[in-house]
Design brief:
single chain; about 140 residues; globular; iron ion binding
Length: about 140
């Protein structure tokens, strides 16, 4: 099984995933204490299975992960109905095809600027810039 912290795996995870896929689509990763899927079909089945809902548990220690927990605790992706439905209604208009297409030029400019900025940084200093807990500079309004 792969070590998700191994620099070689991080640089190119695809051979490890291909080897696992040759053995099956779902595997138990004892180091992560999780089941992992290594195919699109298995991943899609897990994501769509009503019995495998998302129940957010705050990361610990709470003081260190306050912002991270707040972001995920209130995320559309981390909730099941009725919270998911309520959140989806709030944002539904922002994801209409026309609106998303109008955002494309701005998102492309921001992404290009971020890539240019990251190109000169080492992976160690680049990570905080790419953190999923950082607000995106893209705004819909």
């Amino acid at each position: 099984m792969f070590d998700p912290r191994d620099p070689a795996f991080l640089a190119d995870p695809y051979p490890a995933f291909a080897a696992l896929r040759a053995e099956g689509e779902v595997h138990r990763h004892d180091g992560l204490d999780l089941a992992i899927t290594v195919s699109h079909a298995a991943s899609a089945a897990v994501l769509r299975h009503r019995g495998l809902g998302r129940i957010w548990t705050d990361a610990q220690p709470l003081e260190r992960f306050a912002s991270f927990n707040l972001l995920h605790r209130n995320s559309l992706l981390e909730n099941e109905p009725p919270a998911h439905t309520r959140l989806r209604r709030v944002i539904a208009g922002e994801f209409g095809r026309g609106h998303v297409q109008r955002l494309q030029p701005m998102v492309a400019r921001v992404a290009e600027a971020m890539v240019t900025e990251l190109a000169g940084k080492s992976p160690r200093t680049a990570r905080p810039t790419c953190s999923n807990t950082s607000p995106s500079p893209c705004r819909s309004r």
